[in-house]
Amino acid sequence: MEIQTLSRTRRLLLLYCSFFRITALVVGGGLAMLPVIEEIFVVKHKLLTREELLDMTALTQTVPGIIAINSAVYIGMKIAGVPGAITAAAGAVTPPFTVILIIASLFPHLDPKNRYLLGVFAGIRAAVTGMILVTGCRMFRRTVKNPLEIAVVLIFFVLAIMKVSPALLILAAVPFGWYYVWWQTRRLARAEQSNGDSSKVSAESSAESAKNEEDGKC
Amino acid sequence: MLNHCIILFFQFCKFSVLCFGGGYMLIPLLTAEYVDQEQVLTMSEFGNLCSVAQVTPGPVGLNTATYVGYVNEGFFGALAASLGLILPTILIGCSAAAGINRWKDTFLVKGMLKGTRLAAVALIMFAVTIFLGMSVFTQTIPWEAFGALFKLARPVLPEGFRVSPAGVLICGATIVLMLKTKLPTTALLLGAAAAGAILSAWF
What we know:
The complex is a heterodimer.
Chain A: H1 2-5, H2 8-25, H3 34-44, H4 50-62, H5 67-106, H6 115-143, H7 147-161, H8 166-193, H9 198-217
Helix pairs in contact in A: 2-5, 4-5
Chain B: H1 2-18, H2 26-37, H3 43-55, H4 60-103, H5 107-132, H6 143-146, H7 165-180, H8 185-202
Helix pairs in contact in B: 1-4, 3-4, 7-8
């Protein structure tokens, strides 16, 4: 294994430089970084296996936080422990931080009434609208499995429009999720107990799990 | 100054912990905090800053955080916001990387994931409506006006609220291109920027 031959400092340096490069070059969200991460850490340096990368993809979307930083922290942790996690995160932060600072300091010098400039911004905003919509629809298809869940999403949506604080909504969603999962497992257990329907229920649940696996893939 | 930076730091710590489902989740959180409540930004400024965040390389969430911090408190504000955004991630990530396989299938984690994911879907759709008000429509969508529908009355739309043809065109084209082709995000954004500049000469 190459990981043993690289000294600790070299590993930290590699982490910093790799994540610096990744966030400096990749435009778009955290998931756009994945192919580049695979290229650097799996193919080139062989510090991670493909399975570990898959685990990471699942994990980074599970824990809260920005996906890009989540991946940096997880990979850093795998390769060089806690110092690695901090170095990788620092590497990921540096380029966007610098670039945005430069742009932000240039912003006041731009002519706010320039027609073409306004057009450029309007165009990008329209494109971003489409991108968020597509991302949202993909999430919807992956997450929402039955009419009840559609209703729940709708209720959250209406509450958000009625200016309920989004932070409060997310916090409220946690106990709701516990109740929902508890209710579902109880319902499944009951259905299995009534022996008349047992074959039907097991067929249904296996179909559902197959569907879940399919969704997990895409 | 220092106080403000500390407040920014903890605000972004909060956002980071609540940010289930990627950087777009920051949009509703940030608008609620900085546009509706504290009013340090207007909606159109926020729209422009999200555009900049999307076009420049790097994760959208981090770019937005840096920018919001800079607008609030200059260089140190930007630093505080970025650090606030990554600190909880480092803490959670380091503990999660060690224990996630043991915890993954427990009732507590499963329930939390299910609930927050449903909320995240709803909030991202809400983020879409925020953005629709800045691109496809000329103003923020007037939800209060639609309340009239419950009284079976015709909603009275405010003056100046209309559909922007250029916005519809570019938004629609982006969606179609994203679904039908594998064009990289950069190409889509550059195309949209060029189209926006050209269309602005017409409308």
